[in-house]
Amino acid sequence: MQNDHSWSKPHLIEFPRIGNPHEGYISVGEGGGKIPFEIKRSFWTYFTPESIVRGRHAHYRTEQVLIAVTGRIVVFTELPDGEILTFPLERADVGVYIPPNVWHTMQYSHTAVQLVFASSSYNEKDYIRDYNVFRETWAR
């Protein structure tokens, strides 16, 4: 992969919260709307023990939006320039955008259910799973 330093930063996305406390709510995320890419894959994680840290990788090309549908998820990101950002997620109408080339890890409350929208289908070659390779690949 070539060194492309035109990355963007992870950031929170607030989805519409339609409804009321008496009847409940619905939130909608559509590719090209609040989600800044066409959704090619979605998946969810659940029953993750609180002592486990998931993620521990970056992607060369894939963009993602992570949402805590229930429970609490703390998302830690590191940009190629070393900047570290932390995003606590605990509302079903707020997600975090993870652009390519961003190292990310997640810690969960036991009751957390994480929904992920991704810009591409699964491809193992798109993953950087070794932190040292991430730093070497994107170092300035």
Calculate Rg over CA atoms: 15 Å
By CATH, the superfamily comes out as Jelly Rolls
Helix fraction? under 10%
Physical arrangement of strands within the biggest beta sheet: 1-9-6-11-4
| Spans of at least 5 consecutive residues with low confidence | 1-6
Structural class: mainly beta
- CATH class equals Mainly Beta
Give the end-to-end Cα distance, rounded to a whole number of Å.
14 Å
Mean pLDDT: 91
Total strand count, please?
A: 12
The CATH architecture designation is Sandwich
Number of domain units: 1
Query: Which assembly state applies to the chains in this document?
Result: single chain
Instruction: Quote the beta fraction.
Output: 35-45%
Find the CATH topology: Jelly Rolls
Largest sheet: 5 strands, antiparallel
User: Can you tell me the overall shape?
Assistant: globular
Number of helices: 1
The succession of helices and strands, N to C, reads EEEEEEEEEEEEH
Organism: Hymenobacter crusticola
Protein name: Sugar 3,4-ketoisomerase QdtA cupin domain-containing protein
Domain Sugar 3,4-ketoisomerase QdtA cupin: 10-136
Pfam families: FdtA (PF05523)
